[in-house]
Amino acid sequence: MSRSSTVDLVVVGLGYVGLPLARSAAAAGLRVVGLDRNRTVVDGLNAGRSHVDDIMDAEVAAMLGQGFEAVDRPEVIAESAAVVICVPTPLTEYGSPDLGAVHAAVGDIAAHLVPGSRAAIRSNSSGRTAPTGKASTTTSIPPGSTTRARGRAGETVT
Ligand SMILES: NC(=O)c1ccc[n+]([C@@H]2O[C@H](COP(=O)([O-])OP(=O)(O)OC[C@H]3O[C@@H](n4cnc5c(N)ncnc54)[C@H](O)[C@@H]3O)[C@@H](O)[C@H]2O)c1
Fold first, then answer.
1. Cβ distance 118 to 135 under 8 Å?
2. pLDDT value at residue 125
3. Ligand 1 centre from 123 Cα, in Å?
4. One digit per residue, pLDDT tens: the chain, 158 residues?
């Protein structure tokens, strides 16, 4: 855990993958913050409303009771010991994943991740490099991201 962490986990992207991950982490006792660029999603979750079919409003209420909070400010990344990216990677007309949202999330992480924190991505998309920090990736951040970031998979930010 980073020296100054007040948050255990930031989940970036609160959709069909990110919200269940946040639910499980909160239920396990972690202090979880969800980061989403969609203000309607953020406000709805903080009001106890689920926008994901698999998760009921009552489950969101339970998450809030466990300390979960949704935000749209990436600065929260600096307060967290770990970050997991769960943003969409829709296929383009050429059949390859559109990584625009991944690159945007990587940019936010690169700007705010602190020494000792970890970043990972949960996605179908593959790649070779990680955004920054000591990355523990289920898959990894695509090539090109390192040009705007500070590190590579497995490296520690100093
Ligand atoms: N949905 C599935 O059944 C499923 C299954 C396996 C893998 N996946 C993979 O999981 C990943 C996430 O997919 P999903 O279905 O959860 O997406 P989703 O569309 O359900 O939700 C994504 C959320 O991310 C938010 N977002 C987009 N860009 C953002 C950014 N830069 N910063 C913060 N929030 C941002 C959106 O507002 C949205 O709320 C994708 O790579 C997808 O391929 C999805």
1. yes
2. 64
3. 8
4. 455 689 999 999 999 999 999 999 999 999 999 999 999 999 999 999 999 999 999 999 999 999 999 999 999 999 999 999 999 999 999 998 899 999 999 999 999 999 889 999 987 765 543 444 443 333 344 444 443 445 555 665 55
Torsion from C-alpha of 19, 21, 27, 33, nearest 10 degrees? -60
Q: Are the beta carbons of 89 and 96 closer than 8 angstroms?
A: no
Other C-beta atoms closer than 10 Å to the C-beta of 128 total 13
Which residue owns the Cα nearest ligand 1 atom 20?
15
- Tokens 């809030």 -> residue: 64
Other Cβ atoms less than 10 A from the Cβ of 123: the count is 25
Between the CA of 50 and the centroid of ligand 1 the distance, in Å, is 15
CA of 13 to the centre of ligand 1 (A): 6
Nearest CA to ligand 1 atom 28: 101
How remote is the C-alpha of 32 from its chain's centroid? 10
Rounded Cα–Cα distance for residues 21 and 89 (Å): 17
